[in-house]
Amino acid sequence: MTKQQKFVEPEQFSFKDDGVFPNSVLPLLLYRQVLATEPGDGASVLEQRLAENDWCNSWRDGVYPFTHYHSTTHEVLGIYCGSATLRIGGEHGKDVEVHAGDLVVIPAGVAHQNIGAGEDFAVVGAYPDGRDWDLLRGRPGERPTADRTIAALPIPDNDPIYGAEGPLRRIWKA
Hints:
This protein has a 6-stranded antiparallel β-sheet, covered by helices on one side. The protein has a 3-stranded antiparallel β-sheet with strand order 6-5-8, with no helix packed on it. It is α+β, with helices and mostly antiparallel strands. The chain has 3 helices and 9 strands. The radius of gyration is 15 Å and the shape is globular. The relative contact order is 0.25. It has one domain (14-168): Jelly Rolls. A hairpin with an 8-residue loop joins β1 and β2.
């Protein structure tokens, strides 16, 4: 990216601990229409772009239809096909429409789920430094261990789409 090119400034959504889901002091970032969605293998192009910025351990699928969060890593979801409504922040959070070309960076601890999607909805998910992810559902006994794990996570070195100079590190105050 050259200095003349501008970053797509992400929308920011913050969610407080609701007693069930820890959520995060870091805002969830939603980059609208930041990804190319031309015909072809958009998933491979996206996987390569994320890997160039050290967001690895990628997978292709949808988003779970049940509320969940991760304590061992932050997560990026790049929507390369279709659209969906995601509920973020838990039962009293926010419903957000996402479409092909959007990218969502979910801080560790932030609850998320798919509450409605078209049949063609598909994402690439990945993690900073290729971290391994866990799957927590807000069940008794997950916390306070999950809270300590989340608190110990570093801020990623790179924005998943723009690299070291991207908005993530500025917004997350790395």
